[in-house]
Amino acid sequence: MMHVIRHECVALLRTRALWLYLAVFGGLLVVAARSGEAWRDGVYAGRAAAADAQHRSLAAAAKLPEQPWAVPWMTLGRVPVTAELPMGSLAPVAIDRVGQYRSSVVLDIRPPDPSDGEARMLSPFLLDIGAFDLAMVVVVLFPLGLVAMAHDLWVAERVRGTLALVEVCAPSTTRWILATILGRWLALVAPIVVVVAAVIAWWGPATTEAAVLLGAVAVYGLLWLIICAGIGSRAPSAAWSATAALAVWIGLVVLVPAAAGVAASTLVKVPSAVELEVELERDSLDAEEAGEALMESYLDEHPELPRPTRDEDPKGWAKPYLLVLQAEAARRGAVLDTLERRLATQREVAAVASAVSPAATMQAVVATLAGHDEERLAEYRGAVVELRRRRRDALVERVLQARPFDANDPALTTAAMDIAVPRGLHTTVPGLVLLLGQCVVAAAVSWWALRAPA
Amino acid sequence: MNPITRHEFVNLYRSRTVRSVASVMTVVVMIAALAGLVTQQHQVQERVAASEYARERWLGQGAKNPHGAAHFGTYVFAPVRALSGLAPGLDEAFGTVVRVEAHVRTPLSGRPMASRPSVGPFGWPSAVSLCELLLPLLAIALGHGTFASHDGAGLLDSVRTACVSRVRLAAGKLFGAQLAMLACVGPMLLGAAGLAVAVEPSTTNLVCILGIVLGITAYAWAWTAVSVAISAATERASTSLVLASGLWATTCLLAPQFAAAHAAAEHPMRDDMSFQRAVRDDLDAGMDGHDSQDARLAVLREQVLAEYGVARVEDLPINFDGLAMQAGEVHAAEVYAHHFDAQWDVLAAQERVMDRASVLAPGLALQRWAGALAQTDLAHHRRLAESVEAFRLEWVAALNDALVRGSRTGDWEYRADVELWATVPSFVAPKPAEIGSLMAQAGAGGVVLLGWSIVAGALALGLGVRRLSIRGGR
Prior knowledge:
The complex is a heterodimer. By secondary structure, chain A is mainly alpha-helical. Chain A has helices spanning 2-13, 16-62, 72-77, 124-129, 134-150, 155-160, 162-169, 173-203, 208-234, 238-267, 273-301, 318-353, 358-370, 374-400, 410-413, 429-451, and strands spanning 82-84, 104-106, 417-418. Chain B is mostly helical. A two-stranded antiparallel ribbon of chain B has the order 1-2. Chain B is elongated.
């Protein structure tokens, strides 16, 4: 077996194509590494600037306002304190369209809005085309490189008729096939895994997630080699094999994920931004009445509190305003919860529909390891909504109870808080299992293709 | 028809590989076109319904102070362009709805992509984006063996010995491949164009969709010629195929991403938070109409008092608060315009970088061409955003004017009703641009597509003739 592996490696190492392949992918990975690093530095710089501005705003809000109608608690509650999505060590791996989501959201007291988590000032070109990242190299370009380098696996032997000879004469055909694929893997996949490892090490300390990512890259590369081997074993010529392998790549990397997305959005209808805005606005108007009722019942429960009237107290507007806000937030929150559930169902349908595509599976694994998967971002949005609710509750309680103003109240002044959105490695397990399953299926099909009579 | 062209065309068109690739592509693009048009029609209906609701809400708000109504606000929904179903351009990256209210200018929010699942690395599929991605592959399937496979079989020498000139032979092969490409994509493009025009028939739409079809045809011509050129420059069909695929990956997958990243790095936009901070700082430096301590408010007060010849604002026959609100609005509009214009200028600079990059990546040129003709490009979105702001200013001014003339200073109990709400202006979407100006906007993309077609055709002919010369000399 060893001599077959050695033969495959040496034969490939003698070709200029292999060195070109390694140079191209080495270069692409270096560019992706720098691109990821620049993105991470940009995010950190933005957060530092935001934290600085928050401190200044909090200091300004600590001074008692001069306007007679201004309520100090409200001024403090409106300071744009931010909640930040913690970034993991692998965050720069998948930055494709993550820019459209805010990783730092203002925790003001407004009711939840669908545009809260949406970054607005963003290059539409970058958003439309996607940022170049390590995931693009690994998930999309790497298999294309393997198709270019391994489409001729066994074609030459088949064309010359020596494949049958090897099958008959080799001590063990199974071992010969395994050794051939292993030889190609060592020459084509292993160097890429090593460079990816170097990129991750350059970004920061090694973690278990990094090891899982490297394992996933190794399996993904093996899977594409097996696909090439299966095609090559039945191809009448190298050109035919290359065409077929390219078609499979197009199908699995481009068409299946796109078709799955279209199917999911057709099967699971999610209201568009326009429909959502109309629905939320209807609820907000209803909430005004609910807010007034809320105010009445609250005052009935607390007879010791004075009834707020604007004529007697210029600050009297704050209490009914906050209760309307509470009612509005509750109604809008319910609508947005339903939306999040629909989006989650849509994502699940898309994931099921694209289960046949290793590229979609690998993309999901990489995004999960980077902490930029849709589920985590949805959890982050949920956590932001919850934190805002708590801040609103704290504010309502202080204003309604007419508590003495405290500019250092931790409930309203804790700035730049990291939201704990815990994501263990277990979230990547389904993706990894699916990837291994796809590998096994590809191996079984290729095995059949190789052994079945031509 | 040149017999070589005819032979090449028939040969290619009969090829099972070519027909399979062409059939799959036709099905995929037609599905995308149909899905795009259905979505576009749904968007038209939802936005009409939403606009009606916004109007109904505005008229039904009840009696209130006009400034209260200005805070109550209204909504503007982005209009849907007729060809956006086929060529959505940058529509996915821009918002669709904006709440219009006093004091605040906000960009449109609610990107369509936010309510859709992730669909892989190439974004939401549209007829034009799929053509951009897949047409080169069809061209490669058609052209990679034009010279290489025949040479391998020794057929080129045979034809050459039949006294066919090198130029005629090379041109015949090139035009045969081009005819086959046209035969493969022609029905698909005309079908998609017919559907789009049938949905919203108008002369502008017809001209624009024909322009888009022409652009796609030029793109297909360029890639077929490139594929034939590579075939002429390589010995084996498989080498030609791998090289052409590598070029496709470089120009269609990598170059656009590098260009977008380079554009964003070269001309960075302010992020949301720093943008809001900068706006807030500039607004704080001026008056907002609510701050009685503002020095400029005092100047305005003096001017108005002098104009009416009274000593106190309470003695004015008008409501000074309304004037102050409007002055604050004008100041805020200037601040917002300064900051938003700067952002749009950054985007325009990014677009110029993308235009330059399209020389290396013709897919970007096709996007530019189709986006401009479908009115889904940057210029269209800027025009829309600016028209929304112009409407906001006119709308707030009308409400402030009603406050000024309908009440006196300090009279916060003043109430206007539906009579006023019905007279304030409503948003009217900017009219579709004239064909001439659309062509001018699309020009950058058109020039690159034309350049690629000419250069690639010349290269294919030149390399083909050279290849035949070498074979003939042996």
